[in-house]
């Protein structure tokens, strides 16, 4: 039971796992976002350029057939006529395709940012069993819900749009060709615009669902977390050994300063703080070394071997140990207490230099 629990993916994915997944193309992407963007682009096209493009095509068609009617029926004539029509149609179509490509590129950048994933053919995509499992998975259920939603919404919007324009459609026979084209494009623009708005709402929910599902897929077991930590930061035992060596080197440097200290303040066995004061070079006494328990004993031992005075003052020793780092000058609130200790030490040594007041 303990082993099974350890394999559950309960840990949030690390930054490295997210970056590795992104390099492999595992990102949250909503296909509905592309559909909404393309429908929005088509709506703008129908509103701004659709009618003008179709009118231009109609004019070229009319002029071409008028010229063709007054000339002989030849292969060259037909070729020129249809090539002219093709060029006129190709320009608006090229514009539509260009806008569609730009919109698709922007939709991708908005969702995942700049990302280039090399194409790799995955043979498991040909496995019918895996494909059947994917069909009945949570993603398959979500795709089914989206499909039903899209069919229902598009059907309802189409019905409402045509119902609103039904009376106007009955009077199309009395309009000119340009009027009929204008009516058709305005109706298509309204239809595509409404569907695009519905697709935007669906895209937002779908994108949030894709992000949640990706987060679940990227979750890690505790064993995977440990393995990744070992790969990125090294073996924990090695790191612990490095920290131990660093502490030993730091303590050795600290102990070298104890013989130069003016006094060691103790508590009397648990804490020891070595103070050094050079009136000409310092504005206040500095903590040369400090330690608790074993280090405190070692500081007292070195101080005794080098005739450094040891003064027992439990409150001062504890406060200095907790509040002042090695190499720092003591804060102002300790001036009076430390000055009394240094004055006592100077009297024992027969010094005439007065400690800081």
Short overview:
This protein has 357 residues and is mainly alpha-helical.
Characterization of the model:
- This protein has 357 residues and is mainly α.
- It contains 13 helices and four strands.
- The protein has helices at 2-6, 15-23, 31-69, 75-112, 128-135, 138-164, 166-170, 177-218, 222-233, 236-255, 294-305, 314-323, 335-349; strands at residues 263-266, 271-276, 286-292, 310-312.
- The protein has a four-stranded mixed beta sheet, sandwiched between helices.
- The longest helix is centred in the middle third of the chain and has 42 residues, at 177-218.
- It is rod-shaped, with a radius of gyration of 41 Å.
- Residues 1-6 have low confidence and may be disordered.
């Amino acid at each position: 039971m303990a082993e099974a629990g350890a394999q559950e993916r309960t840990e949030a994915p690390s930054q490295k796992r997210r970056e590795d997944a992104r390099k492999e193309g595992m990102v949250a992407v909503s296909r509905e976002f592309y559909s909404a963007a393309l429908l929005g682009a088509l709506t703008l096209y129908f509103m701004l350029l659709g009618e003008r493009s179709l009118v231009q095509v109609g004019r070229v068609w009319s002029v071409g057939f008028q010229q063709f009617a007054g000339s002989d029926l030849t292969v060259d004539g037909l070729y020129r006529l249809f090539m002219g029509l093709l060029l006129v149609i190709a320009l608006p179509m090229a514009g539509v395709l260009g806008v569609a490509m730009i919109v698709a590129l922007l939709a991708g950048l908005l969702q995942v940012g700049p990302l280039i994933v090399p194409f790799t053919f995955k043979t498991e995509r040909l496995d019918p069993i895996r494909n059947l499992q994917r069909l009945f998975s949570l993603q398959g259920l979500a795709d089914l819900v989206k499909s039903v939603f899209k069919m229902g919404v598009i059907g309802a919007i189409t019905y409402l749009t045509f119902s609103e324009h039904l009376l106007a459609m009955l009077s199309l026979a009395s309009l000119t060709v340009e009027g009929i084209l204008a009516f058709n494009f305005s109706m298509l623009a309204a239809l595509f615009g409404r569907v695009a708005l519905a697709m935007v709402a669906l895209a937002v929910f779908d994108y949030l669902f894709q992000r949640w599902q990706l987060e679940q897929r990227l979750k890690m077991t505790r064993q995977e977390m440990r393995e990744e930590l070992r790969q990125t930061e090294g073996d924990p035992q090695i790191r612990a050994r490095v920290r131990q060596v660093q502490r030993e080197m730091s303590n050795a440097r600290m102990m070298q300063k104890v013989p130069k200290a003016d006094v060691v303040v103790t508590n009397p066995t648990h804490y020891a703080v070595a103070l050094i004061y050079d009136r000409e070079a310092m504005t206040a006494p500095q903590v040369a070394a400090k330690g608790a328990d074993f280090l405190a004993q070692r500081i007292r031992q070195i101080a005794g071997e080098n005739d450094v005075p040891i003064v027992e003052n439990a409150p001062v020793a504890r406060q200095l140990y907790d509040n002042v780092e090695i190499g720092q000058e003591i804060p102002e609130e300790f001036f009076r207490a430390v000055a009394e200790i240094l004055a006592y030490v100077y009297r024992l040594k027969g010094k005439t230099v007065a400690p800081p007041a």
